[in-house]
Amino acid sequence: MNIVARRLTLLLICLPFSLFAQYTETINSNRPGNSQGAFAVGQNVLQFELGLGYGKEKHALLFTDANVISVDYAARYGLLMERLEINAIGSYQNNNITFNNNIVSGTYTQANFKLNSIGAKYLLYDPYRMRELEKPNLYSYHANFKFRWRELIPAVAVYAGANFDSEDNPFSPEFEATISPRFAVITQNNFNGGWVFVTNFLAERIATDFPSYTYLITLTHAFNPKFSMFLENEGIFSDFYADQLIRGGAAYLLNTEFSLDASVLLNWKDTPSRTFFKLGASYRFDMHKKDEYIEEKGDKEAEPKKQRKRKDDVEVDDGGF
Predict the structure, then answer these.
(1) Do 257 and 309 reside in the same domain of the chain?
(2) Considering the chain, what is the average pLDDT of its residues?
(3) How many whole angstroms separate alpha carbon 176 and alpha carbon 127?
(4) I want to staple 265 with a disulfide (CB 3.0 to 4.6 A). Which of 3, 138, 239, 276 is the partner?
(5) How far is it, in rounded angstroms, from Cα 87 to Cα 78?
(6) Are residues 227 and 266 in the same domain?
(7) 6-28 tens-digit pLDDT
(8) 73 and 51 assigned to the same domain
(9) Number of structural domains, the chain?
(10) Half-sphere exposure of residue 125, counting CA atoms within 13 Å on the CB side?
């Protein structure tokens, strides 16, 4: 490989890392895991994320088996600035439960929202913004991709919202309809080689008699620009429900606005034991606007004239701007 080709290759390799900053040319989905990334979808970007799941739950003490159908959803919008996102996140579940002991027999159904929340996420710290200004070393491949201690410094975001629980909800610890706060601290590391490490620390229903605390640790690896896989651990701590969940799966980018995903969920307890399979999709409506300045080529003797050209191809003459 000659020196020109080597330099061009290094430039192309280094370019994708600048996309993590804020708005990206391709969709940025939180699926198929349960954690939120630290970065917003981008100003004036409206994004929908939907998942359909089927699973089994078996309770060793209650002697019940349940066939479970679930629908997970998220609607996300980049509001006012690149760092801010408002979102609605939820999960609706239908359990068809069968008793399998010699005392009680029959089936019954439970159906309601396990999660129904509205909130906002704000990026407090972005360590990658300043790194965008650094130029790659065109003479050394290893200099560009060697480990640096500063890579351990993550992007940090905070989330604040509210849970909305309806009356007589079997998935809620409260019998009455309640609105309770929901807070989270989110970190994200983007490592060389397509590795992304995300952590979430959540506090939910902290104003009720049954507060819940959750951590999520998600590791994602992109094998190429279209295909990625993830592994996730979720720990839930509450007097109402506690569990350790393991998720794994993959996502495929069909185009810049649309992605598909699949995942599986397992846990380690038998009260109940849980096995889930999910399929999902994410789609965005990209209304992000950014002025780009170009120089119009003309007569060499004439004064160069610059124009502003927006993505909608509308040109505005700025004269000698």
Answers:
(1) no
(2) 83
(3) 44
(4) 276
(5) 9
(6) yes
(7) 443 343 333 333 334 467 888 98
(8) yes
(9) 2
(10) 10
Unique residue bearing structure tokens 């606007």: 289
Q: Is the pLDDT of residue 89 over 60?
A: yes
Least confident of 3-17, 44-58, 219-233: 3-17
Residue 121: give the domain boundaries. Answer: 3-288
**What string of DSSP letters covers 163-228?**
EEE-TT-TTSS-SS-EEEEEEEEEEEEEETTTEEEEEEEEEESTTSSS-EEEEEEEEEEESSSSEE
The identity of residue 242, as a single letter, is A
Please give the C-alpha separations between residue 227 and each of 35, 37, 119, 231, in angstroms, as whole numbers.
Answer: 19, 18, 30, 14
Strand partners, 255: 258
Residue 93 has pLDDT above 70, yes or no: yes
Q: Can you give the pLDDT at residue 283? A: 98
Tell me which of 48 and 143 has the higher pLDDT. 48
Q: What percent of the chain has pLDDT over 90?
A: 65
Q: Both 155 and 224 in a single domain?
A: yes
pLDDT of residue 307 exceeding 80, the answer is no
Burial of 294 (0-12, 13-18, 19+ CB in 10 A): exposed
Q: CA 220, 264, 268, 235 torsion: positive or negative?
A: positive
Counting Cα atoms < 13 Å in the Cβ hemisphere of 224 gives 5
> 141: part of which helix (H) or strand (E)?
helix 141-145
Q: How far apart are CA 133 and CA 255, in angstroms?
A: 28
Q: What is the pTM of this model?
A: 0.79
Q: Which of 215, 153, 218, 217 is nearest to 184 (CA)?
A: 215
Residue 72 and residue 40 share a domain: yes
